[in-house]
Amino acid sequence: MQTSANMEPITRALQTLTSGQPVSDGDGVKMTRIIGTPELNMLDPFLLLDTFESDQAQDYIGGFPDHPHRGFEAVTYLLAGCMRHKDSAGHAGVIEAGGVQWMTAGRGIIHSEMPEQTDGLLQGFQLWINLPASKKMQAPAYQEFPANIIAVEQLENGTEIRVIAGSTNNGTTGPVINHHTNPVYMDVSLPKGQRFEQAVDTDDNVFIFVITGELSVGDSMRNIGRHQMGVFGEGDQVVVTANEAARFLFVAARPLNEPVARGGPFVMNTKAEVLQAFEDFKQNQFIKRTGN
Ligand code: CO
Q1: In terms of domains, do 92 and 173 share one?
Q2: 86 in a structural domain
């Protein structure tokens, strides 16, 4: 933390509020895009946030068949249901409710993400986190953590914090390692009337997405409602209170402050690099080769 001794932490104010827009991606999967829309193109280093929640099989059964990525990390967090992942670097696995898949596309990966269920609720998030220019062409990597590996902090007031990445004020630390943007990724359940305080680095971009319930921000009268994302202004801590029992994602990371060039599944620094990605994909450069 960068708070100097004897200085009161500055509580971040709510800066913007967004509800995203409905999109269909993969093979007809219905989702809501929160980051990566005309309204909120990106929140450096976050390039995209999708949320999906449906108990209607036709909304998700098509899944995301084989498709490529280059230049960033894709983080999938499931709240309900089951997804099977397979990629060209040889990684495969099934994520279940409470589990996380943290995929570093690096120089190139082709993967599929398919529902491992034909009915029932499928609910979760996919977040894209940018890589710095120096790491965009690194070897692909993959971290997967089932629910029982996620660090859980339970407080006497009934608060439960599931820590995927980063550390709570009490020092509970999540299993994900990322030195590029030092992300914080927490799933917080807050009983009605309780307060959640979290220190953040002054440089970080910070957002909260409310899954259920409603939060009020700091000492203001401003609220973040169900299925809304709040982006925070400057400061070194975030304080929210549950107006009603709430569950939300708390996410923060250090911005890269680098130029961003997007081309669908490829996110690079220049347009030429994006065109090169399309060319490399066409030339089958994303397929793992022996000894590579
Ligand atoms: Co993908």
Answers
A1: no
A2: yes
- Spacing, Cα 69 to ligand 1 middle (Å): 7
**For the whole model, what pTM was predicted?**
0.94
Phi, psi torsion values for 128, nearest 5 degrees: -100, 125
**Are 216 and 280 within one domain?**
no
Structural domain for 187, as ranges: 151-258
pLDDT digits (tens, 9 = 90+) for 30-70: 999 999 999 999 999 999 999 999 999 999 999 999 999 99
Do residues 273 and 135 share a domain? Answer: yes
C-beta of residue 111 within 8 angstroms of C-beta of residue 73: no
| CB hemisphere CA count around 133 (13 angstroms) | 8
Domain count, the chain: 2
Measured over the CA atoms of residue 171, residue 210, residue 46 and residue 222, the dihedral's sign is: negative
Q: Give the distance (Å) from ligand 1 centre to CA of residue 237.
A: 32
Spans of the chain, pLDDT less than 50:
290-292
Tell me the CATH number at 172: 2.60.120.10
Q: Distance, CA 63 to ligand 1 centroid (Å)?
A: 10
pLDDT at residue 196, rounded to an integer: 97
